[in-house]
Amino acid sequence: MAVEQRTPATGDLAPSERIPEPASVAYGRAVRRRAASLARLVVPFLVLGLVWGAIKVLFDLDDDVLVSPTTVAAAIWQLIERGILPDFIGLSLRRLGIATVVSLLIAVPIGIALGLNRLVATAFEPFFRFFQAVSGIAWLPLVIVWNGFTERTIIVIITYTLAVPVIFNTMVGIKTVPQRYADMCRSLGGGTSRVLRDVYLPGSLPSMLVGFRLGIGYGWRALIAGEMLVAQGGMGDLIFAARTGNQIDRIMAGMIVIGALYLILDQLILQPFEDATVAQWGVLRA
Amino acid sequence: MTTTTAPSSGSVPPPSRTSRWSRRLTAMSPALPFLALLVIWYVAWVVFDPRPAVLPAPGQMLRTATALLRDGTLLRNILASVERLVLGSVVGILTGVAAGVLAGLNKRVAAFFNPLVVFFSSLSGIVWLPLALVWLGIGRAMVVFIIWNSVFFLVFSNTMLGVQMVPVVFEHGVRTLGASRLRTIWQVTLPGAMPHIIAGIRAGFGFGWRALIAAELIGATSGLGQMIYSAANFHRSDIIITGSITIGVIGVAIDRLLLARLERRTIERWGMV
């Protein structure tokens, strides 16, 4: 980032000669800095909106092909007003939430158990690499045969998509925890559960979170794709059903909401969490 | 598993029969989980005796796979999918690298594009499907667009990041030696950004391959995704599982044999870590 410190007149003086500035000046500067960083975030999107609007007008595109940004904004507002959007967002997030809890409950213990033995971990690496490559969505047809077009189908798919990278990365994380750390904990009188809780769990957490974040990245998309096909509500269903009526405004409104939701999930929740974890325990990262 | 006890005295042990066996076993060990899964599958099939639509017998699946291979169905669908993947990825990589370099060279331009790229990579891939269906209809162009979309933004953002990470000193150094701006980009900036670019390509492939299958489930008349989805309509679980395994094998092969190696070589050659 271009953070050119444009300090006021005091900048040229030596620290000892600096006149303590009044609180109002410092406050004003903080406000300006906030405003500038907000502008850096908002302006590109405003420009994009303008370009988009210009394309619509200049090429005289039909509403079946492209709608104007204002129409999309109106569509978002209408979806909120009718309660469809809160409903469908809730459905999608609920599915993701259930799948997250279930997959973590399954994946973390398995990952730890497999990672504790070097030979076992080596043996299982290709296995999980393979299943990571068979994306959740590739199992969708089979799960539909098993469970029909139901809620459970979607949740099974996302749980799978989340669990595989978490198992794999937990296993790898545990494997990279130096044996002597565990030995040291034991020699100080720690039991097995103590060693697991205080050595292996924190030691593998950074890697585990990398897996979880990747899993959410794949899982979120699997959720959208699954909802499109299963058609039981949710954001994927919203945009896919709008296609049959050529409701471009609704499709684009849904897309924007989907992008924003994922952004919040990934950048505002997972990324800071991962950074904090890596900062605290990341020394073990191989 | 037999563990060979390492002698503490430091004398070199003769290569005993057991140690050779244990080494061989270790090398073979990755096959064990797959074998175990096969056994579980077979036992489940015997115990629960499910309808073939729900779960085929392993032997039945093998017969189906051979039949699909023999009559060319599998190969035709693999080729259709891979062709779309290659087309979408190549266009995505070329446009992504070009756009990333252009944007990355200027700090202000990069700062402008950064929020947009982050936003668009967060809705890349399958989210575009409904719009792509309206714009391009069912078929190859639509699927290629989805793959391009998955690859482009990840490559774009990684290239931009990589270009910005190349120390300016290197560029200045080469320029003072008389190199033109274009030559500097070609011989300094691009190689310097290469580890990031390759990482972007690898991540892009991960998302692109998944998006491809999802797009083919819904909006294609051929390809592996279409093959397994139409098999679901006829409750042919043997065809579905054959297809899913094929999807996995191709994904692993491209990632491990091609991209992971490429990444390692690039980091060894140009990495600055």
List keywords for this structure.
heterodimer; A: 286 residues; mainly alpha; 10 helices; disordered N terminus; B: 273 residues; MetI-like fold; 11 helices
CATH superfamily of the largest domain in chain A: MetI-like
The general outline of chain A is: flat
Rounded to an integer, what's the Rg of chain A over CA atoms?
25 Å
CATH architecture of the largest domain in chain A: Orthogonal Bundle
Written as H for each helix and E for each strand, in order along the chain, the element string of chain B is HHHHHHHHHHH
Determine the CATH superfamily of chain B. MetI-like
The count of β-strands of chain A is 0
Sum up the overall morphology of chain B in one term: flat
Q: What does this 3D model show about the protein?
A:
The complex is a heterodimer of chains A (286) and B (273). Chain A has helices at 23-58, 69-81, 84-116, 118-133, 136-147, 151-176, 179-187, 192-230, 235-244, 248-281. With 286 residues, chain A is mostly helical. Chain A is flat, with a radius of gyration of 25 Å. With 273 residues, chain B is mainly alpha-helical. Chain B has a single domain, classed as MetI-like (MetI-like fold). Helices cover 79% and strands 0% of the residues of chain B. Chain B has eleven helices and no strands. Chain B is flat. Chain B starts with 16 loop residues before the first helix and ends with a helix. The model of chain B is unreliable at 1-11 (pLDDT under 50). At the A-B interface, helix 1, helix 4, helix 5, helix 8 and helix 9 of A face helix 2, helix 5, helix 6, helix 9 and helix 10 of B.
